[in-house]
Design goal:
Strand content: 35-45%
Structural class: mainly beta
Radius of gyration: 27 Å
Number of helices: 4
Largest sheet: 5 strands, antiparallel
Low-confidence stretches: 1-14, 16-55, 117-145
């Protein structure tokens, strides 16, 4: 059956000259009703949006049409170098969009918040797709015309890469994607530096927010830790830094009411805020107004450096993925800002599921404080790649916590460190933009039930053939996935994970780039890309027009 073609009727003012006995007001009202009848008659002919709810028809699913991420300042020293990589997975259904990355300067931030819009054509009528509002309430026009972009992303499915600004005062940066590049848009920062010893620092670029947790910072011994704050919004932000140690909260007026102007990057030494050496430090970055992107960079002179992974929001149970299969030592820091103590069971993922490590069966965390545990690993005690799980010892006493884990690797007496954190499952899909052929390991942890994950590797930024495979992950185990490099990869390639079935999965990617016998490495978590959002389904309602 041929699909009928619906044509909008031409609206003609009704002839009310034959209407007698009515006032001019009455004639005007009749005219309005006639026009409304035509308008709502047309509206009924349009296909309604597909509802995400069965039966209720109250909400519908839509792909995001604009995504914005913020990267921390490189912290590369004078001689280090930093690479930034952008990626959007295939599958975006919006209009052809633009992806870019730019330094977080006042001019760039202002231009990105007010993208240049093309002049409307006098003869062109807006289509349904063009006139639809974006789920985030943001303009869908490309900001590329006004922003001084450092990197541009051309199309989905292929990463784009480039260098960050040079020098030890290089600012943070921000990345924006619109249209079909917005769903799943991700950016990764990777720094090679000899500041404090040869090391590799990596960070996922994240959306601006109002709350960030970090666990495992320190201002003791050879540690040099900095907190970074980047404001990539057009409004100023005011930030408080709430610090917790093993003796309780650490108060300092210098850590409150920190003003960050639009397009500005602030870097502060934690040692200047803790009033003396503090180990096993947790930091909660909270904004009073505005939004920022926050980071903590750690240097343990001669032993390793990296960004601390931001922790998931406080929860009664926490899983930390990404422990490498050749780890030699690990240091766990747990914190709670609750008024209640936390009593926790400690487990590691093993070949046959979760198990309790001897000597570290439980840990007690006092209210408003931090607590720490140390793990030592040998070839005899390691069970391959692993993860840590913390759960309440009693279901009747769940206390929200955050946790971070430092992991050390060793080669010829030289060590390097990375800082992991409690995470969230990858959800429907998650990507990391920067991976290197022959230097990348992927770790998948199934928490509660068996799971199946699809792993897709893009081509390299400068060439290669995409690859993919399905991976089974038994409950309570961590699987190290091999054979994920795309054939003939030239340049960084992206990894995309999709949950095909089963229980929740947490994932992390490790990159190793040896330097002077130092096993320099960094590990980042995969995060749910939230490519779709739930929006209300709108129906025509004459009462709105009539002022009901």
């Amino acid at each position: 059956m041929k699909k009928p073609t619906l044509k909008a009727p031409k609206l003609k003012a009704p002839d009310l000259s034959s209407v007698t006995g009515g006032s001019r007001t009455g004639q005007s009202l009749l005219a309005g009703v006639a026009v409304l009848g035509l308008v709502f008659g047309i509206a009924e002919l349009r296909s309604p949006a597909t509802s995400a709810a069965t039966g209720g028809g109250k909400r519908t699913t839509a792909q995001v049409e604009r995504a914005a991420l913020v990267c921390p300042p490189p912290m590369q020293g004078v001689t280090g170098s930093t690479t930034l990589t952008l990626f959007s997975p295939e599958g975006g259904t919006g209009s052809t969009g633009t992806g870019l990355l730019a330094d977080a300067t006042a001019d760039n931030v202002l231009a990105a918040q007010n993208p240049a819009q093309p002049a409307p054509s006098a003869s062109a009528a807006p289509s349904d797709a063009a006139s639809a509002a974006t789920p985030a309430g943001q303009p869908s026009g490309s900001p590329a015309a006004a922003v001084d972009a450092r990197i541009s992303l051309a199309k989905p499915g292929l990463p784009a890469t480039g260098p960050a600004a040079n020098g030890d005062t290089a600012p943070g940066s921000f990345a924006i994607a619109t249209g079909n590049l917005a769903p799943g848009f991700t950016a990764t920062q990777l720094t090679s530096s000899e500041q404090g010893g040869a090391g590799l620092s990596g960070a996922d670029c994240l959306p601006s927010g109002t709350s960030f947790w970090f666990s495992g910072a320190s201002t003791t011994g050879n540690r040099v830790d900095y907190v970074t704050l980047v404001n990539a919004d057009s409004l100023p932000a005011v930030v408080d830094l709430r610090m917790y140690g093993d003796k309780g909260p650490i108060d300092n007026e210098l850590a409150t009411g920190i003003s960050i102007a639009p397009g500005k990057t602030e870097t502060m030494s934690l040692a200047s805020l803790t009033k003396g050496p503090v180990d096993n430090l947790a930091l909660h970055v909270v904004t009073r107004s505005g939004r920022v992107a926050a980071g903590v960079h750690a240097i343990d002179t001669g032993k390793g450096s990296d960004w601390l992974e931001p922790s998931a929001d406080p929860a009664a149970s926490v899983v930390i993925p990404g422990i490498p299969d050749d780890v030699t030592a690990a240091h766990l820091v747990i914190a709670t800002d609750s008024a209640d103590d936390a009593d926790l069971k400690v487990q590691l993922s093993g070949k046959n599921g979760w198990f309790t490590p001897a000597g570290n069966e439980t840990v007690h965390v006092k209210a408003g404080m931090t607590a720490a545990l140390d793990f030592q690993f040998t070839e005899q005690t390691r069970e391959g790649a692993s993860a840590v799980r913390l759960t309440p010892t009693s279901d009747s006493h769940p206390t929200p916590i955050v946790a971070g884990l430092r992991v050390d690797r060793e080669n010829k007496g030289k060590t390097e460190a990375a800082w992991l954190a409690g995470g969230n499952p990858i959800g429907a899909r998650a990507s990391i933009a920067d991976n290197r052929a022959g230097q990348t390991k992927l770790f998948l942890t199934a928490t509660d039930a068996d799971a199946k994950v699809k792993v897709t590797s893009s081509a390299g930024a400068s060439g290669g053939t995409p690859a993919g495979k399905d991976v089974d992950v038994p409950a309570g185990t961590t699987v190290s996935v091999d054979g994920i490099d795309p054939a003939g990869a030239n340049g960084p390639y992206a990894l995309t994970l999709q949950t095909l079935g089963g229980g929740p999965v947490l994932a992390a990617r490790q990159i190793t780039i040896p330097a002077k016998d130092v096993p320099a490495f960094t590990t980042q978590q995969f995060r749910d890309d939230h490519a779709t959002v739930q929006v209300p389904q709108v129906a025509a309602d004459p009462g709105v027009v009539l002022g009901r």
